[in-house]
Amino acid sequence: MEEVSTEVKISTHTTLDFFEGRKLCIMFFLAVVMVAGGMVTICLGTYQISIVEVYSIIATHLFSPDIVDSLDKLKNTIVWNIRFPRVIMAITVGIGLSVAGAIYQGCFRNPLVEPYILGVSSGAAFGAALGIVYPHIFFSIQLGAFLFALLSVFLAYTLARSRGQTPVVTLVLAGIIIGSIFSAFVSIMKYLSNDTQLREIVFWMMGGFYYTQWDDVRLTVPVVLISVAIMWFFGWKLNVLSMGDEEARALGVNPEIFKFIFIVLATLVTAVCVSSVGIVAWVGLMMPHAARLIQGPDNRFVIPTAALMGGVYIIFCDTLARTLTSAEIPIGIVTAIVGAPYLLYLLRSKEKEIFG
Questions:
Q1: How far apart are CA 270 and CA 154, in angstroms?
Q2: pLDDT (tens digit, 9 = 90+) per residue, 69-97?
Q3: Residue 264 has pLDDT above 60, yes or no
Q4: CA distances to 48, 103, 174, 225, 286 from 270, in Å
């Protein structure tokens, strides 16, 4: 009997190692695709540059900055000052929104939740519109969008909290209410704006990386990567929260504290991303779904996989936005067009599970 028991343990352990190894291989493959896709994206555009030249320019800036002046000025400007920061920002936003979506879905135990569920997008849109119509109020549009994005979630959380607890359903309803209020404020800003300001508000709300500069990258990347790393580190606690509050308490995890930590970090990431590039839809809803289909429900693997898939997806959509037509298409339009058919497919493929 002892020999049989030992064989079963060895077999089970080997099976677990195999599946974890497979998951790590998938993540490594996605990381390679993301880096390679970013390099190819930099090559594409109205002015095409070979991948060898792209690599040479980036390597020179990173490892031999003293000979930058020897580079071709036009190609150097296009690659280093325009396309490279744009690609880094696209990857960062894809990672941030995808992980935020996975966190919200895990905390709320609802696969239909996205990062904007607590009114972040509406709050950010109002802050941006306020900065556009009344530019003397804020130092920048990004600052206004960031502050009001955080304010919307703070109001939703405060409104939902009662007797030391924050019920999930109440929090979602509070987010919808706050989001609707800020949407009404955005409409007021549109009504008060002139033609130029109205055009700028509309374009901001559709999202885009057209104005991305190195200053934006320096502000956004550290916040997103540090927050994502913390959320990934506590991924096992998100697994416990996904089981329900009572089960979490039974396992020694305080659901209120960790739910608050996760929501704060996910909101911070979403606010930073949205304030930098505008509203980019579908990413935070789609990528966690896709990651779970590939890796299963374990958030220790879902979070990094969703992050990498989000980076790849945004690079792909941004490349389409830049190259499909002579005029650049807002990224929000492309992500919606590509994302809607995927969710329709997901709905049809899971029809039996949903409707019985």
A1: 14
A2: 888 899 999 999 999 999 999 999 999 99
A3: yes
A4: 33, 11, 18, 12, 15
User: In sequence order, which residues have a C-beta less than 8 Å from that of residue 45 and are 6 or more positions away?
Assistant: 78, 83, 322, 323
* 69 Cβ neighbours under 8 A, 6+ residues apart: none
> Which residues are CB-contacts of 332 (< 8 A; sequence separation ≥ 6)?
205, 206, 207, 208, 278, 279, 280, 281
Quick one: average pLDDT of 86-109? 95
3-state secondary structure 242-296: CCCHHHHHHCCCCHHHHHHHHHHHHHHHHHHHHHHHCCCCCHHHHHHHHHHHHHC
* Sign (positive or negative) of CA dihedral 166, 171, 173, 174: positive
Tell me the domains of the chain and their CATH numbers: 1-349 (1.10.3470.10)
DSSP readout, 162-200? BTTB--HHHHHHHHHHHHHHHHHHHHHHHHHS-HHHHHH
Strand partners, 162: 165
Which pair of structure tokens corresponds to residue 108?
A: 């709320």
Burial class (CB in 10 A: 0-12, 13-18, 19+), 111: middle
Residue 25 CA to residue 99 CA, distance in Å, equals 19
Which H/E stretch holds residue 27? helix 2-43
Q: In this predicted structure, what is the pLDDT of residue 1?
A: 45
